[in-house]
Design brief:
The complex is a heterodimer of chains A (500) and B (308). Chain A is an alpha/beta fold and 500 residues long. Chain A contains 16 helices and 20 strands. In chain A, helix 2 packs antiparallel against helix 4 and helix 3 packs across helix 4. With 308 residues, chain B is of the alpha/beta class. Chain B has one domain: Aldehyde Dehydrogenase, Chain A, domain 1 (3-Layer(aba) Sandwich), CATH 3.40.605. In chain B, strand 5, helix 7 and strand 6 form a beta-alpha-beta unit. The chains are: A alpha/beta (500), B alpha/beta (308). Strand 18 of chain A pairs parallel with strand 10 of chain B.
Chain lengths: 500, 308
């Protein structure tokens, strides 16, 4: 029970806003392992090429705002070139290659990612701002695991869909976000290649570097030229790519607004489309929940990757009978979060990915205050430079307020309360989104009842923010359609024959 | 006027000519048979131009009422056991079987085909209900998985219905095409609003009479007749419709329908290009498939820690 018994290790018994009463020695990961080029061209046809557009842009480290490298800004002529190259690779080599041979390339890629895992982790943190312990322990190993998992499917597709004749769709255009650059690349490329498609991937404009390092992995794996192509640039290039008439398949992960733009752009075409869009997940704590685990789950749910996660548990629903002590425990826990240098191995909350996102988070935090919610932020010091924001908790939040309705995509938690399971369900489902949800209770039958009634594609029970290549992920309602991961994730890249 | 349905009765009438009682073809919404609130109708003709009947020209309000009915019925239908849903749909096939002659006469008149061909369409439509009814308690095992995640969690994925599905029924195949699109959506637990074939709506209306006396709960299947150019855009843009089956959407409307459907990220099931009107609904291998049930299902993944 909250407030009674032995204090858990996670509860330091501190008052509001106090800093942890000891210092952590700095434990920075060395960035020497990453050898940055001054300039990165596009990766088309198996080699790095200068953009035909002749344009470049600078990519930065969001923790310091220092430039890291120049990156090609692809133009429509580069899109044209990449699509042609991918089409030829599909026709001439990859589409005809037996599954067992495709598999071996994917296994190679998985192995190389494992071998170069530290380099990828450091680069991902440098360019994206996420804590090194997350890129090291989550992003990179999971990315490798996705290639490993889908490698094994490449020569077993006839068993995956018995009685069908699964065939690749052709050339896939894949547009991914900046919150998990390498992991999203793996979610997209691994099943596409396993199915026999060729791909053109456009990473987010603020985080191109791990994808460009992945180009080097493709070279090391001797992947046939043109099977994987990576073009960098702003969102409008992504749109030009998905609209190209010679694209057969479009996969997008990102905001619901951009997903709708892509959906409209593809209306009336024959392109296959899967969308993994925004979310506003409810994380529901019942009075009989195991509180220590629930506190950790709530913190992981909203502060993992600075809350820049489409499935983040951004709406906390606490049963009224335990709300007060639970929120106090939560505030205590927030005060122990270490915010700062993403390369420091002790850092819990790193830098916000980019200036525009920081401005959006700050605007919504201000809106929360203006709408009468009560704000709590621990008194941690933020670095003088870079894009940082304090972990933020709002109580006294109205269901209708912007911070309870809109996807913030930052370390901002809105706390609401409920009395009955029915009320929790009604409030949890009262959103156009339906990506994920969390339930915390020690009663098994209640978990299963909540699982059934929550309109969300992933339900974490007594846990949160877990991912695995074997586990299908994707949304209900305006959180998109199609699944990534697992056997179900293969479907997005296959034609089972005989039309749709 | 309803010549098609009474054709046999006319021929068999002995003695002084009996004046047949004609049927009024109505909408089917929430288990009721309303006429359109708009009071409009349109003349339905056979392919050779013979007038067959007046069909209701459903309005925006009729369609919205149907969507509201479907939404209201969804939770109850989804909440039934899978076996129960299968039995309820099988019951609809039983009742169709008893009306084979009537369906045959209507399909013959509506599609301008011979008696034997019409009989084949009707028989296959009944068999298709039975085929899909049997999937009710099997599709979850076909599509669901237990996922061997690389950590100490029990992780599984299973399908759930998308919600309210708007079905623009195939235009040429008045009964078999309609059944082939409605059955997969309904067996998965969705509630549906169906726009019947605009030019051949009468067999669909007769199907509603079967549904009304079956155990299919009111609101689970709603059928509207009317003009596609009026009704399809409303269905496609309605924010409480979760998915659109666009087999009957005219090619020239396809882009605008898909644009409108994006607004609330509707799921789309569409025919291969140019194939909708020529599709051979008698070809079991192509025309009945579990993927068509899956098209209106969402996959839900659940994680739980394993521990003492």
């Amino acid at each position: 029970m909250v407030g009674r018994g032995t204090p858990s290790p996670s509860s330091w018994g501190l008052g509001d806003g106090q800093a942890v009463p000891w210092e952590y020695a700095p434990a920075p990961e060395s960035r020497d392992i990453v050898q940055l080029q001054a300039r990165y061209g596009l990766f088309v046809g198996g080699k790095e090429v200068a953009p035909r557009s002749g344009q470049w842009f600078t990519t930065i480290d969001p923790a310091t705002e220092e430039p890291l490298a120049e990156v090609a800004r692809a133009g429509v002529e580069d899109v044209e070139h990449a699509v042609g190259v991918a089409r030829r690779a599909f026709r001439r080599s990859w589409g005809e290659l037996p599954g067992r041979e495709r598999a071996k390339y994917l296994f190679r890629i998985a192995r190389i990612l494992q071998e170069r895992s530290r380099e990828f982790a450091v680069l991902e943190t440098l360019n994206g701002g996420k804590p090194i312990k997350e890129s090291r322990d989550v992003d990179v190993p999971l990315a490798a695991a996705h290639f490993w998992y889908y490698a094994g499917w490449a020569d077993k597709l006839e068993y995956a869909f018995p009685g069908r004749a699964p065939k690749p769709l052709g050339v896939a255009a894949q547009v991914i976000p900046w919150n998990f650059p390498l992991l999203m690349l793996a979610w997209k490329i691994a099943p596409a290649l396993a199915a026999g498609n060729t791909v053109i991937l456009k990473p987010a404009s603020s985080t191109p570097l791990s994808a460009l390092l992945f180009a080097d992995v493709c070279r090391q794996a001797d992947l046939p030229p043109g099977v994987v192509n990576i073009i960098t640039g702003p969102g409008e290039i992504g749109l030009a790519l998905v609209k190209h008439p010679d694209i057969d398949k479009v996969a997008f992960t990102g905001s619901t607004a951009v997903g709708k733009t892509i959906g409209r752009a593809l209306a009336g075409s024959d392109k296959a489309l899967t969308l993994e869009l925004g979310g506003k997940a409810a994380n529901i704590i019942f009075e009989d929940a195991a509180v220590d685990q629930a506190i950790e789950g709530v913190v992981n749910g909203i502060f993992f990757n600075q809350g820049e996660v489409c499935c983040a548990g951004s709406r906390l629903f606490v049963q009224e009978s335990i709300a007060e002590p639970f929120i106090e425990r939560l505030k205590d826990r927030l005060s122990t979060l270490r915010v700062g240098d993403p390369l420091d191995k002790n850092t819990d909350v790193g830098a916000i990915n980019n200036a525009a996102q920081l401005a959006k988070i700050e605007e919504l935090v201000e809106a929360g205050v203006a709408e009468g919610a009560e704000i709590y932020q621990p008194a941690c010091e933020l670095p003088a430079r870079g894009f940082f924001v304090r972990p933020t908790l709002f109580t006294n939040v109205a269901q209708s307020s912007r911070i309870a309705q809109e996807e913030i995509f930052g370390p901002v938690l809105s706390v609401l309360t409920f009395r009955t399971p029915e009320e929790a369900i009604e409030k949890a489902n009262n959103t156009p989104y339906g990506l994920s949800a969390g339930v915390w209770t020690e009663k098994g039958s209640r978990i299963l009842s909540m699982v059934k009634r929550l309109r969300a594609g992933v339900v974490w029970a007594n846990t949160f923010n877990r991912f695995d290549p074997t586990s299908p992920f994707g949304g209900y309602k305006e959180s998109g359609y199609g699944r990534e991961g697992g056997l179900q994730g293969m479907l997005a890249y296959l034609d089972l024959g005989d039309g749709h | 006027m309803a010549r098609a349905v009474t054709k046999r009765a006319d021929a068999a009438a002995p003695g002084p000519e009996r004046i047949p009682v004609r049927k009024t073809y109505k909408l089917y919404v929430g288990g009721q048979f309303p006429r359109s609130e708009s009071g409009r109708s349109y003349v339905v003709r056979s392919p050779d131009g013979t007038p067959l009947a007046n069909a209701v020209r459903g309005s925006r309000k009729d369609l919205r009422d149907a969507i509201r009915s479907a939404r209201g019925a969804f939770a109850g239908w989804d909440g039934k056991t899978a076996m129960n849903r299968g039995q309820v749909l099988y019951r609809a096939a039983e009742l169709m079987e008893g009306r084979r002659d009537q369906f045959e006469a209507e399909v013959e008149a509506a599609e301008g085909i011979g008696t034997a061909a019409a009989r084949e369409q009707v028989d296959r439509a009944i068999d298709r209900w039975v085929w899909y009814a049997g999937w009710a308690d099997k599709i979850t095992q076909l599509l669901g998985t237990v996922n061997p995640v690389g950590a100490s969690y029990f992780d599984f994925t299973f399908p759930e219905p998308t919600g309210v599905v708007g079905i623009v029924a195939p235009e040429t195949s008045s009964l078999l095409g309609l059944v082939s699109r409605v059955a997969p959506a309904v067996v998965g637990g969705n509630a549906v609003v169906v726009l019947a074939s605009e030019s051949r709506p009468l067999p669909a209306v007769t199907l509603t009479e079967v549904l009304a006396t079956s155990d299919v709960p009111p609101g689970v299947i709603n059928i509207i007749t009317g003009l596609r150019r009026e009704l399809v855009p409303i269905l496609a843009s309605h924010m409480d419709v979760n998915a659109i089956d666009s087999w009957g959407v005219p090619l020239e409307m396809r882009q605008s329908v898909e644009e409108a459907a994006v607004e609330n990220v509707k799921r789309m099931a569409r025919p291969p290009r140019g194939d909708a009107d020529r599709f051979d609904w008698l070809d079991d291998r192509r025309a009945q498939r579990p993927e068509w049930i899956a098209a209106f299902l969402e996959m839900k993944t659940v994680w739980h820690p394993i521990g003492m």
